[in-house]
Predict the 3D structure of the following.
Amino acid sequence: MAASGKFLYEQDGVYIHSSSERTDEYNSLNPGVLRILDKDGEIVVDWRLQDDNLDSTSIPFAGKDSSSVVEWSQSPRERIFRGPNHQNSYEAEWDMVNTVSFKKKQHTTSEGVIHFVNGQNKWLFSFSLADLVSIRMNEEGMGWPVLTFCLKNGITLPALHFHHGGNNMLIECLKKYIFFTESPEDQTILLVSNQNKYLYQPFENLLEEKAYNIVQIELSMRHDIQRQEPVSFEEWTQALDEAGRILNEDTIKQAIFRGGLGHTVRKEAWKFLLGYFPWCSTREERKILQKKKTDEYFRMKLQWKSVSEEQEKRNSKLKDYKSLIEKDVNRTDRNNLFYEGQDSPGLLLLYDILMTYCMYDFDLGYVQGMSDLLSPVLYVMENEVDAFWCFVAFMDQLHQNFEEHMQGMKTQLIQLSVLLRLLDDEFCSYLESQDSGYLYFCFRWLLIRFKREFSFQDILRLWEVMWTGLPCRNFHLLVCCAILDSEKQTIMENHFGFNEILKHINELSMKLSVEETLVKAEVIYTQMANCKELPREVCEIVGIKCNTEVDSSGLKNNQCLKMKELKNSDAGSC
């Protein structure tokens, strides 16, 4: 009987060397097959003898409703199954989560377990990826790679000897489901990040099943939308009264949405857009606020600065944050003059701010990707304290993206899927046929708000436009739709499969035009807002009232509503 579940990885020639009393030879070489399987949403790592016929469906493996114990049981035999051809992964470190399981399964709260099987071979094992703690990697003296899996409760499995290679492909496959960090004490050990265990749970379980009555919108009709010049220093000054208050918040937001900001204005305007400065505050009130926030910042900074080496040895969490921040800072925007050179003041500030954020939000601490969000903010602010509080405000918006459950990421991917289905049902069906229907390749876009997709200067423009909150809720999802609309012809005409789609999307990095993307995203919004049969679910995602006419500007006459207002509207408004 063939093994059940979807084969994600398979490698033969993976040996377990049993111990020998002699030092110059092995008493027994146990050749086996190592596999990674998706068993109804449970990602399982499985090893068994290469010449055995074992039925993997009978092998007990990690179950979410079991306690963490080691169990032994008998297992029948199965025949060897040759999985699909191995394909290279194009992800780079944490940048992309390419594959996430969406199969329906019941959620449970208990921890998983590791089960060994004691049949004719005592080494046979299978465990849930949720139980993986670390992987030790080293080269055997005879020349082949050796990996050792370490699991929860201190369980260490027998070392696996990759006589025929394939170890790197295994690590790349695992990276699709979990994040690894290098151990600060030992570079041969990959630690599983605590951000991982919810990544491969089914996204679709987060929402109730709904029958979406999707009406596709044709994007062939283009509205006459023109981008404007950035808001200049003179225009910004004229928007303030004598006391320094913003005269008309809506007017200045519309101007920023239309053309962005001149660079000389950003240092002050971003503080308003991010919510660090209240829009109604006076110049004097802002000075008082900055003084208060400066004192608060340096009190938090002193907390980690004053930790001694002895204290740090007993604070593994802080030590891990520090190690990860050091690693990420050293590779963040190093081609930018502000962060260039080994002793760059910009890098030192980047490090200090991220360490201080760990004191501000110790539960979240530091997660890979945050340095990408801070870098442009610090570049614009050129001030440690202001950059910190603007970063705090930015993180407040994206906090759920980085939390352990990653609820924000899952919800956004579902919402994006709904929007794309509305806009282009044919393209959605094609993506689904290529196992790409849940838009895994957009993960990086959403996680760090397109930071690695546009040039540094373009990302400044894109972020300030999105921070206006115009023309609707979740405008960044329409930016995703705009990019995908531009690329669908290339993807479909070339019959790209899963890996080709991922590769193509990755290679768009630094080749996208921010102005063209913003125009197309606004066109999509305008057409959606003018649709008379827009599904209520879509109305809720973008926060607009259905059956509402908008002009070609998509701004002054739109009826953008907050979610609270939408829920109080008439049931027949959609």
User: Anything to note?
Assistant: The longest helix spans residues 283-305. The first strand starts at residue 6 and ends at 18. The CA atoms of residues 92 and 239 lie 45 Å apart.
